[in-house]
Amino acid sequence: MPEERTIAAWLTDMDGVLVHEERAIPGANEFIARLRDTGTPFLILTNNSIYTPRDLRARLANSGLDVDEKSIWTSALATAKFLSDQVPNGSAFAVGEAGLTTALYEEGYTMTDRDPEYVVLGETRTYSFEAITKAIRLIKGGARFICTNPDTTGPSAEGPLPATGAVAALITAATGREPYFVGKPNPMMFRSALNRIGAHSEHTAMVGDRMDTDIIAGMEAGLTTFLVLTGSTSREEVGQFPFRPSVVVDSVADLVGRV
């Protein structure tokens, strides 16, 4: 590590770091247990805006990981908090699923398709042509365009599925309006997570498996960054990027002793 910082709080990605294909990655349970037992503030971050924290808690439990839903921070939650800070108790036309609509409701937002202040695009497994058409018309009518995350594809058993970023590109082509993306790699998501747990960037670490989202966003937010090799990025690929993580480790198991 270039400089030894005291790490008092942790942010960690979920897929590729803690779980892979619904199975816990070796060491993940010990890492989470260590954070919990020492009372160390932490949040699990995900760009997935489909599910509520309660849904994701159940998914992690099925993988053998015991995590409180309050320790999960999604791009939908970050988006809802961002909108609430911008326009408290505003209105939005949301294209997404329960993870997004629930987060917006809990921040006091009204869902409407009549002159909303925002069109908010999240991830869904059933993008509706009617809903996308409505979003295009509302944006052309003056609604501001927000997206939960820029991921262009998502995984499925049959192969990649079009995700938020791909549908956002369609809407941009039809409207000429670029969206504001809240989720990773926007460091905004990390700053909202830090505020959530009352942590300071100088003493917080980010654990991720992707250089182009987790590591760059953590770096731009001023965090110590740990790249694990259990997900999307191999050790050989690290050198292809113009930036580097603070530390590269084989897996989250190597971080248990650092908590």
From TrEMBL:
Lineage: Bacteria, Bacillati, Actinomycetota, Actinomycetes, Mycobacteriales
Pfam families assigned to the protein according to its UniProt record, in alphabetical order: Hydrolase_6, Hydrolase_like
Cofactor binding note: Divalent metal ions. Mg(2+) is the most effective.
Keywords: Carbohydrate metabolism, Hydrolase, Magnesium, Metal-binding
Binding site for substrate: K184
MF terms (GO), sorted A to Z: metal ion binding; phosphatase activity
Protein name, UniProt field: NagD protein
Gene Ontology CC terms: cytoplasm
Cofactor: Mg(2+)
Family from the record: Belongs to the HAD-like hydrolase superfamily.
Binding, Mg(2+): D13, D15, D209
PANTHER family membership: 4-NITROPHENYLPHOSPHATASE-RELATED, HALOACID DEHALOGENASE-LIKE HYDROLASE DOMAIN-CONTAINING PROTEIN 2
Catalytic residue list: D13, D15
Keyword Lipid biosynthesis set for record: no
